[in-house]
Amino acid sequence: MKSDVETLFKTTKPSLLDVIGREAAVPTHTRASRQIPFSRNFVILLIGGVALALIAGGTAWWFLAPATTSPGKTQKLIPPSPLFATESSRTITADIRDRAAFISLMRDAARETEREGTAARIVLKVKDGGEERFGTLSDIFGLYGIAPPEWFLSEIQSHPMLFFWYGAGGPRFGFAAEVRDSDRVFSQMLTWESSLFIDARPFLFDETPGAIVTPFEDRTYRNIDWRFLKLSQTEDLGIGYTVFPVGNILIFTTAKGEMETVINRLFDAR
User: Where do the structural domains in the chain lie, given as residue ranges?
Assistant: First the structure.
């Protein structure tokens, strides 16, 4: 239907005031109806824009949000980084309450044979109630029934690295861990020497020490001072310890060759 304004233009040449007057005479609801298509299109465009923004935001969140562990799924444990290189590695899982099973697993690991001069890392996982975690030095000493001096465990500040070194006389156990104060630990280890052989006896496994002829004595290798208690006149067997200055790493071994190997590899790891 044509408006009065259109008719006016066809029949005469109206002035601007005539056009305005005619348009003003149109009922309000008629003028509003002419604006509806514009308003409807605007609303449709607005809704469409909001929808696209929501879709884009949801897609970005899906790809960028950090992954979470689904209920019922156990997050995979990542072993602590080794302090030095080894030729092989094996994992032992034991219940913190089952001492006999732990000792049996460690004995089995001690019976493994490898090429002479090599080392194998032992990664210990413990089941503690409903939790599975990596074993601490406190766990290991507790499972072996070893009671270290009160100061000892408080100085340890990392998970221990357990390992076997394979010499001519068979596998020899050892561990390494970062400590807080190297000078304090070394001086306190000197005071522990009087009972260290008895306390550390489980770390010798099936080896039978000979008569102890000499006490702990000073040794030096590559300018690293360390202490050693020789336990055999025919085999490389004994108790040795030192604190490697770079990284403040306490090293405990049960053979002379083992200590020298670990020192070499810690130098290589620098």
Answer: 4-64, 88-269
User: Do 122 and 92 contact (CB within 8 A), yes or no?
Assistant: yes
Q: What are phi and psi of 180, to 5 degrees?
A: -75, -45
pLDDT at 12 over 70: no
Q: What is the DSSP string of 111-157?
A: T----TT-EEEEEEEEEETTEEEEPPHHHHHHHHT----HHHHHHB-
Give residue for tokens 């005619």.
22
Place of tokens 């990284």: 247
Q: Which pLDDT does position 16 carry in this prediction?
A: 43
Q: Is the pLDDT of residue 6 over 90?
A: no
Q: What whole-number distance in Å separates Cα of residue 125 and Cα of residue 93?
A: 5
How far apart are alpha carbons 247 and 245 in whole angstroms? 6
Helix (H) or strand (E) holding 236: none
**What confidence category does residue 242 fall into, taking pLDDT thresholds of 50, 70 and 90?**
very high
The SS3 call for residue 107 is helix
**Residue 162 near residue 122, CB atoms below 8 Å:** yes
How far apart are alpha carbons 193 and 22 in whole angstroms? 114
**Among positive and negative, which fits the CA dihedral 93, 95, 101, 107?**
positive
pLDDT at 55 over 80: no
In this structure, the chain runs to a length of: 270
Highest mean pLDDT among 31-45, 53-67, 94-108: 94-108
- What's the CA gap between 137 and 143, in Å, rounded? 10
Tokens representing 181 are 């104060």
202: tokens are 């489980």
Pairing mode, strands 238-244 and 217-221: unpaired
